[in-house]
Amino acid sequence: MGILDHKGKEMRLITNRFDSTAEEISEIYRSRWAIELFFKWIKLHVEINTTMVRIKML
Questions:
Q1: What is the pTM assigned to this prediction?
Q2: Are residues 2 and 10 in contact, defined by beta-carbon separation less than 8 angstroms?
Q3: Sign, CA torsion 42/45/47/50
Q4: Which residues pair with 4 in a beta bridge?
Q5: Which of 7, 8, 10, 28 is the most buried (most CB within 10 A)?
Q6: Measured between alpha carbons, how far is residue 5 from residues 12, 23, 45, 53 in Å?
Q7: Alpha carbon distance 21, 56 (integer Å)
Q8: In this model, does residue 47 exceed pLDDT 60?
Q9: How many CB atoms lie within 10 A of CB 28?
Q10: Residues sharing a CB contact under 8 Å with residue 4, sequence separation 6 or more, in sequence order
Q11: What are the pLDDT digits (tens) for 12-46?
């Protein structure tokens, strides 16, 4: 499945979601990437004790 990114470069994505269009898959990927970048920023800029976070999640 191929789609153009915002710079006009073709991106190729492999998926098993045959019920979605290339545009839908790329939007899901873009959203997921934004979330990953947000968590990376959190880890770099906010001092969180990971043990405390894991305990509260359980």
A1: 0.52
A2: yes
A3: positive
A4: 10
A5: 28
A6: 10, 10, 29, 36
A7: 39
A8: yes
A9: 14
A10: 10, 11
A11: 778 888 898 888 888 888 888 888 998 888 888 87
50 or 35: whose pLDDT is higher? 35
Where does the pLDDT of residue 9 fall: very low under 50, low under 70, confident under 90, or very high at 90 and above? confident
Residues 34 and 41 sit within 8 Å (Cβ to Cβ): no
35 neighbors 26 (Cβ within 8 angstroms): no
Q: In the Cβ-directed half-sphere of 43, how many Cα atoms lie within 13 Å? A: 7
Structure tokens at 34: 């934004």
Which token pair is 15? 């998926």
